[in-house]
Amino acid sequence: MKQHIIKLLSISILLSLGACKKDFLAQTDPNAVTIDNFFKSENDVLLAVNGAYQSLRSGNTMGETSQLFTDERSDDAGRDDNQSNAGEPFQFNDFSILPSNSYLKSHWLALYEAISRTNVILTHMEKVTFLNESNKARYAGEAKFIRALMYFELVRKWGDVPLVTEQLSTLEEVSAKTSRVPQAEVYNLIIADLKAGLDSDLPNFQSASGVGRTSKAAINAYLGKVYLTMATTLPDNKAENLQQANTYLLAAYNMRTFGSLAEIPYADVFNAAKETTNKEAIFQIAYIQGDIDYSSRIAANNQAKGETINSQNVATGPGAKAMLDLVKDYEANDSRKEFSVKFGNDAQVQHWFITKYRDNSDAAGKNGYGGNDWILMRYADVILMLAEVNNLMGNEGEAIRYLDMVRARAGVPLYAVARTNANYNTKYPTLKLAILHERRVELAFEHHRWFDLLRAFNADELVAFFKAKSQADYGNAKLSNISTKDRYFPIPFDEVKLDPVKMYQNPGY
Q1: Exposed (0-12), middle (13-18) or buried (19+): which is 333, by Cβ within 10 Å?
Q2: Which pick of 251, 312, 432, 468 has the fewest CB atoms within 10 Å?
């Protein structure tokens, strides 16, 4: 999307101004358009909302290149190079991350910058006269949806975080908000923000021209995921949160425009040529094939040296490495394996790499300007969350029904038959582990795995889960490094330094 983008300060950048003189802060650029002067019409609000959506594209928020903070934190993907960029990217998969890690700081800053964009919109749109009041509610719902996504990323990764819901204009206001608040308060805001969109005239699904914007189906799906996360990670109100998760996930599921998931071939979900007709996608970041600025690079970036399956772009490096631990988790004859991973057999690349995102069309060309949309929510995710919720509620038969919807499309035996296989039964002795396995192979490399593990296990269980794995299947990163501290990321050092009491560090760092 080509749109007017408002440049705003994140909370940490604002905090860094504390040592500046007031007269310096009072200076203005006479050629700049100030925030106060920008919001004059409905269209100005729309442009600002577009700018907030643009923030999702960044690899430092939720874009296609944000795997460092998700998949490379899990057992699905990683890297063997512990020297490049001072070894900082390697720290995520190696469970040796430091509070001073510059990539982690960039992630934190980008999430709060996106929040700042939404706060400015919500503050200033109140001064605009709307000819169509329904537009006001819709734009507010979209801004709050984006803010909710950013806080959902923050609270799952860091736990207690600062909660900012309005534009901060003075250092005093910033200082007052420089304090971590309990996770429950953050989740309350996330839920309220998401529900705001349900009270607007947002459509159930966006039309082809609106792909990349939210919808009621997307909001329901995310509400279901938020309530499920609360039920499995917070100590209070588990039964109520599970019931709410089931309600909103069912609402999203019942909005689908297809019958059975098996009607949609797995490869079609990721086909750049079929994005406008993709009935499984619920919410995605839109990319423009062939466009130097707005194209997707994931197909080219993932491709290993000597390969041509993903892109016409000539790869010179190792590509995106898939863990052998994941490759071994695919069952025999699972159609998703052949589509998602391939063994790179170049002399310099002797590992499995990711092939799930492909665009080797002439339109993408040798520069690799692909058209792959980055799907953040799709129906297989919703279906498997319904399986997870029902299992947690004790509805085993219903959980298996949802699980089998996904397995049927993949061409693997339904659950009751799979349980008769000794190998399957040994690896996944409980329905909980079977659902976790299914989410892994169905949603591989879509940045869900780390969050799935956090829902499935507490900190001690997470450590035991990783340490039970084979180091040979995990790569150069050391499984032995993991400890209970790795349940959360460390608060970036520069944030703690600003106020060690209110911005207290997570345990173990």
Answers
A1: exposed
A2: 468
- Portion of the chain with pLDDT greater than 90, in percent: 87
Dump pLDDT digits (tens) for 154-174: 999 999 999 999 998 888 888
- pLDDT of 16 over the 80 cut: no
| 314 closest CA partner among 234, 233, 368, 374 | 368
Q: Mapping DSSP to helix (H, G, I), strand (E, B) and coil, where does residue 213 land?
A: strand
User: Above 60 in pLDDT, residue 201?
Assistant: yes
pLDDT of residue 80: 87
The count of other CB atoms within 10 Å of the CB of residue 394 is: 9
Nearest to 379, CA basis, from 432, 455, 442, 286: 442
Residue that the structure tokens 């130097």 belong to: 292
Residue 33 has pLDDT above 80, yes or no: no
Query: CA-to-CA distance for 141 and 120, rounded, in angstroms?
Result: 14
CA–chain centroid gap for 279, Å, is 20
What CA–CA distance (Å, rounded) separates 207 from 30? 41
Q: What is the rounded CA–CA span in Å between residue 256 and residue 254?
A: 5
Q: Is the pLDDT of residue 26 over 60?
A: no
From CA 454, how far away is CA 488, in angstroms rounded? 10
Enumerate residues 6+ apart whose C-beta is below 8 A from 151. 115, 161, 163, 186, 189, 190, 193
CA atoms within 13 A on the CB side of 112: 24
Confidence of residue 29 (pLDDT cuts 50, 70, 90): low
DSSP 41: S
CB-based contact 445:76 (threshold 8 Å): yes
| Per-residue pLDDT band at 25 (split at 50, 70, 90) | very low
Task: Give the whole-angstrom CA distance, residue 59 versus residue 150.
Answer: 13
* pLDDT of 464 over the 70 cut: yes
Quick one: tokens of 358? 């492909």
**Which residues have C-beta within 8 Å of that of residue 295, sequence separation ≥ 6?**
287, 288, 289, 364, 368, 369, 370, 371
Distance in angstroms (rounded) separating the CA atoms of residues 70 and 93? 10
Q: Strands, DSSP E only, in 116-246?
A: 161-162, 180-181
Give me the torsion for CA of 390, 457, 353, 358, rounded to 10°. 40
Q: How far apart are CA 429 and CA 23, in angstroms?
A: 67
